[in-house]
């Protein structure tokens, strides 16, 4: 039906945005590449590319074919690796993480993986847990570290230690000599995780009591942005505690002691992967992550 070389050529046409650039890579004429694609379209009985304008784009059928063909290519590479180099990982590993992980264990974990598997190249994605779950389900990630509530059906989930959340303010803010109540916290603008995430929903919920004036609640998809806004005095914020203590910014922000009513639920992250296709790298990531997941949060 088709060869793996056809898949590689299609990928390069899409990546380069046209037939000419792909032809240059393979030291072929543009007409030769075009003829090969046309022959493949004839075999498949579908149009792979929309040629109605100057920019070459995949048709819906072409996109579906390329996605499935890429899965086949990865399966081929995995089979070859397992049979010819058992126990030795190589190639590209796609890891997705929630931003909290970036500020806690990611660097140490990747350094360990790099040392253990020098032939592996890492492709990293940082996103919300919900988006990571969808991306992994679409086979666009090999392993993801996400909130346990987001793990897609059929995936393995290995738990990490809970991540503690805390309330923080700019270092120059004068605090009373007692833990703050919800009513006192509500006097300030609050910056936290993006809307729709469990921490945002919990913060929104604890200020829903009728006797508390609801604060201005701001969400951000970037926790680094939250940290900078808090340090700059924009408002108080909710952040993972280790993100502050592991950061050079810890001198610009400080913890706010709060009453029990304002304490937030720990975040529970897991390392997730589909065992039928990514067991080896999944187990390697678990082993590396847990080496640096020993500090109580």
CATH topology of the largest domain, what is it called?
A: D-Maltodextrin-Binding Protein, domain 2
Q: Which CATH architecture of the largest domain?
A: 3-Layer(aba) Sandwich
Main pleated sheet: 5 strands, mixed
| C-alpha Rg (nearest Å) | 24 Å
Helical segment tally?
12
Tally of distinct domains: 3
Could you spell the SSE succession in H and E letters? HHHEEHEHHEHEEEHEHEHEHEEH
> What proportion of the residues is helical, as a percent range?
40-55%
The shape is elongated
Tell me the total number of β-strands. Answer: 12
Give the class from helix and strand content and strand pairing: alpha/beta
| CATH evolutionary superfamily of the largest domain | Periplasmic binding protein-like II
User: What's the overall average pLDDT, rounded?
Assistant: 88
Low-confidence stretches: none
Question: What portion of the residues fall into strands of 2 or more residues?
Answer: 15-25%
Distance from first to last alpha carbon: 55 Å
CATH class of the largest domain: Alpha Beta
Strand order of the largest sheet: 4-3-5-12-6
Family: Belongs to the LysR transcriptional regulatory family.
Domain HTH lysR-type: 2-59
Organism: Thalassospira xianhensis MCCC 1A02616
Pfam families: HTH_1 (PF00126), LysR_substrate (PF03466)
């Amino acid at each position: 039906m088709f060869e793996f070389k056809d898949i590689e050529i299609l990928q390069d046409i899409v990546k380069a945005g046209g037939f000419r650039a792909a032809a240059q890579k393979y030291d072929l004429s543009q007409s030769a590449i075009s003829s090969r694609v046309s022959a493949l379209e004839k075999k498949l009985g579908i149009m792979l590319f929309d040629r109605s304008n100057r920019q070459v784009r995949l048709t819906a059928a072409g996109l579906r074919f390329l996605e499935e063909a890429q899965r086949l290519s990865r399966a081929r590479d995995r089979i070859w690796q397992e049979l010819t180099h058992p126990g030795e990982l190589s190639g590209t590993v796609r890891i997705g993480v929630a931003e909290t992980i970036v500020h806690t264990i990611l660097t140490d974990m990747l350094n360990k993986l790099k040392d253990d598997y020098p032939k592996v190249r890492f492709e990293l994605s940082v996103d919300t847990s919900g988006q990571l779950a969808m991306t992994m389900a679409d086979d666009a990630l090999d392993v993801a570290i996400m909130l346990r509530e987001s793990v897609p059906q059929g995936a393995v989930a290995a738990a990490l230690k809970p991540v503690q959340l805390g309330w923080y303010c700019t270092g120059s803010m004068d605090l009373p000599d007692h833990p703050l109540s919800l009513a006192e916290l509500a006097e300030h603008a609050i910056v936290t995780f993006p809307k729709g995430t469990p921490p945002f929903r919990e913060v929104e919920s604890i200020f829903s009591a009728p006797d508390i004036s609801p604060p201005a609640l701001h969400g951000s998809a970037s926790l680094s942005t939250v940290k900078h806004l808090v340090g700059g005095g924009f408002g108080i914020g909710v952040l993972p505690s280790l993100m502050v203590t592991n950061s050079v910014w810890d001198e610009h922000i400080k913890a706010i002691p709060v009453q029990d009513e304002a304490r937030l639920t720990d975040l529970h992250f897991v390392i997730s992967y589909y065992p039928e296709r990514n067991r080896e790298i999944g187990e390697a990531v678990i082993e590396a992550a847990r080496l640096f997941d020993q500090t109580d949060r």
